[in-house]
Amino acid sequence: MVISMHELSITKEILDLAVAKAREVNSGRVLQINIVIGNASSVIDDCVQFCFDFVSRETIAQGARLNFLRVPVQMRCRNCGNLFCPEKKTWECPQCMEWDAEIVKGNEFYMDSIEVE
Ligand SMILES: [Zn+2]
After folding, report:
1. Where are the beta strands (DSSP E) in 2-48?
2. How far apart are the CA of 16 and the centre of ligand 1, in A?
3. Cα 86 to middle of ligand 1, angstroms
4. DSSP H or E stretch at residue 84
5. Which of 72, 63, 55 has the alpha carbon at shortest distance from 14?
6. How confident is the chain (117 residues) per 10-residue block, as mean pLDDT?
7. What is the pLDDT of residue 43?
8. Ligand 1 centroid distance, CA of 102 (Å)
């Protein structure tokens, strides 16, 4: 498996955040971490869990399960302002047929909540 530095660094950020949150409520163990991940993001769930298992060793989040909530991609047409969900990776606006759209949703990657002991 190829692990990119990008995934490793964002996983480390999530770990640090989860540990800090657990300490805030005086918990000694993180059980689950809920992560929001956009479908346009190149991040792969399995890689993140793998990285997490590695970076969380000997921390209070060791063995925590990561749950991924997928956010669908949404695009906005720069020509007519129409919001649409792209089908089959085409960026064509279904309203005006222009190919000038930007991603407004789907690039998310952040920690939503954690469950502690
Ligand atoms: Zn349009």
Report:
1. 30-38
2. 42
3. 12
4. strand 83-84
5. 55
6. 76 95 97 94 86 95 96 95 86 93 92 96
7. 83
8. 11
